[in-house]
Please model this.
Amino acid sequence: MNRFERGIEGLFFSSRWLMAPFLLGLVVGLVGLLYKFGAKLFDFILLLKTAPESEVIVGILSLIDLSLTANLILIVICSSYENFVRPINIADHPEWPDGLIRIGFSGLKQKLLGSIVAITAVHVLEWFMDIESHAETQKLAWVVGILLAFAVTMLILAIADRVSAGVENKGH
Model:
């Protein structure tokens, strides 16, 4: 390999650090989501005593929705950093949760789609809990259809990952 090729290769691999500002932006987004969660939690606590049971459940579902979205952002941040910027040495961080490190592309796809399906399911439950004010059946059908599309996509990807893992194992 000549000097020019090595220089180009070095440039390409060094460009991975350009991901860092994107990940920092996601951290800022996570902080913003924390702010929204705190505001919703505050409103929820204030209305808790007088709200009907269905509104309490919708309030809880909305807090769950924000929590799942925060989990999704955190998974993307940690996985992207480890897979594209710099590997993480587990020995240096024994207290870090296993779910945030050593996430391969297959695992990342499943975690992302799993989170998206859960978030969408929470939205569907919110609709059902407050069905009186959401009388638009066409919109509800779209929400349920999107949930089913995500669930089917997740299932297909899981099957494809399992099949490709089986083929790789047979090849070795």
